[in-house]
Structure formats: structure tokens, C-alpha cells
Amino acid sequence: MRIKDTLENYAFIFPAVVIFSIFYIIPFVNVFWYSFLDWDGIMRINATNLTWFTNFKEVMTDRVWWQSVWQASYITLIALTFQNALAFFLAWACDREIRLKNFYRVIFFIPPILSEVVVGLVWKWILDGNYGILNSWLVHLGFPNLVKDWLSNPNSALTTLAVVHCWKGFGWGFLLFLAGLQTIPRELYEAARVDGANAWQSFKNITVPMMIPVTVLVMILTVLGTMQVFALIYTMTGGGPGYHTEVPVTRIFASMRGSSRFGYACAQGIVFGVILMIISFIQYRFSKKAKA
Predict the structure, then answer these.
(1) Which of 73, 109, 238, 246 has the highest count of CB atoms within 10 angstroms of its CB?
(2) Using one digit for the tens of pLDDT, what is the confidence trace for 203-242?
(3) How do the domains of the chain map onto residue ranges?
(4) Which of 68-82, 137-151, 207-221 has the highest mean pLDDT?
């Protein structure tokens, strides 16, 4: 009887294991194998394609690759600070008794559910240096000195992309922060008010400590999501001007599509995966200390 129950249990999870193996385990093994090859993605693989660690050595000395990692880190830093601060402030405002708060909740969650390609194309049109709406508004408002080609200027392109990314993604943090704020018992605030605590003291001693687990979760999701940004950047700048807005995923895509170097692209993907694993481990250790 016990054997029959065990077989039934395995039968229930078997389809999930098959799907997971086909779409995750097998592709991962293939990527790991291809990273040792000099392969264009088309020709049949033979012994002459095997280069062992040559691709990884090239990644380690690829200046453009590490520039893309730095640029993704810059966007991530802005997302961690500006995006999450905006999300928390708006969630805190909507958690209070204000008019039309349900309307605001819907509006703030619209950007994240929009297609990144559509958002990228719309913002590219808004920020266009020749006929963009933003520059037209700046001229009409009396700030012609602020007019620039936002996406073609190397000095402003990356920061502009970071701001657009924050606009696109702050809704996820807003939703998580709002859910966290709503789990804080209102009795704690009432007790603090009875004890004579003002709004700042209640915020510092109740809201902040109770929101630490949610904040850590939002930080982890922000870092992993922002480091892997692709569609928004590809539709707005394609990685240009030059390599000034390249990020790791666009570099991997360029190695595959532009150079037809699938082996090198797989090596870049593995290095990038290791970087994300290290970041995740550091954040996990930080979250354990924060919860303690």
C-alpha cells in the first residue's frame, strides 16, 4: 500500500519534473557545454570547435562586457534608491485615509503591466531630440537651455534610461510595500498615540522595523530584475550611443545575433549568472542579519 501511495505521489509530480527538465535543466546543461565551444549556432559541432576555457578568458578581458556590467549596476543603484523610495512613499500615502486611494492604487500599478517594448517605443518618441514632446514642453515653459537629445547624448542616455526603468518598475515595489503596510496592526499605532508618540516616532519605531522583511524582499527583486533588463533598453537605444547604454543581456544578445558567436555568448551568460548568484548570496546574508 505504501509503495502504491509513493508511486501515485511521483505520478503527480512527474509532469512538472518533465517540463522543468525540458525548459530549465537541459538548456542549462547545453549552455554550459556550448560555452566551451567556438560555435556559430548553425554548423555541426566537432572536435575542432572545442576551445575549453578560451571564451571565459576572453570574457574576463572584454572591456565592453565589464562596462555593460557597470552600467547595469548604475541603473540598479538608481532603482534601489529612487524607485524604491518612490514606491514606499506612494504606498505609505495610499495606506492612509485619503480620497480616491483605490483609484491611485490602480493608476500606480498600470506601468508595470504594460509591455516593455511598447513603453520603450513611447518613451523613445517622447525623448526624441528632434520632435520629442519633452523638449517641446521645455521650450514652451521657458527652459530652452535644458533641451537636449536625451537618448543620443552619451552624458545623459544611461541616466535617462534608468529614470524610465524606474517609472516602469516602481509599481511592483508599490504593491509589495502596500501589502506589507496593511499587515501592520493598527492597534500598535493607537497604543503609540495614547503613549504620546508623534507621527515621526510612530513611523520610526513601528513602521520601519515592521517593514524590514518586505524591504529586503523588494531590494532582492529590484536587483535581480534590473540587472537583467533588456527589452526596454533594446527598444529605446539598442545599447547606443556607442556602448554607453549596453547592459549584460544586450551584450549577450549582440554576441549571438550580431557576431554569431554562440559559444562566447553562453560563456557571457554563465559569468553573468555567477555574478547574480554572488549578489543574491550577499543579499540573503544581509536579509538574515536584518531579520535577526
Answers:
(1) 246
(2) 888 888 888 888 888 988 899 889 888 999 999 998 888 8
(3) 62-291
(4) 68-82
- Confidence band (pLDDT; 50, 70, 90) for 73? very high
Nearest to 264 by CA among 72, 73, 62: 62
Three-state SS sequence of the chain: CHHHHHHHHHHHHHHHHHHHHHHHHHHHHHHHHHCCECCCCCCCCCHHHECCCHHHHHHHCCHHHHHHHHHHHHHHHHHHHHHHHHHHHHHHHHHCCCCCHHHHHHHHCHHHHCCHHHHHHHHHHHCCCCCCHHHHHHHHCCCHHHCCCCCCCCCCHHHHHHHHHHHHHHHHHHHHHHHHHHCCCHHHHHHHHHCCCCHHHHHHHHHHHHCHHHHHHHHHHHHHHHHCCCHHHHHHCCCCCCCCCCCHHHHHHHHHHHCCCHHHHHHHHHHHHHHHHHHHHHHHHHHHHHHC
Per the CB < 8 A criterion, the answer to whether 251 and 64 are in contact is yes
Output the average pLDDT for the chain: 85
The reported pLDDT for the residue numbered 48 is 60
The amino acid at 4: K
**Cα dihedral sign for 82, 124, 130, 73?**
positive
Closest CA to 174 of 112, 227, 123: 112
Do 83 and 169 form a contact (C-beta atoms < 8 A)?
A: yes
Higher pLDDT, 42 or 94: 94
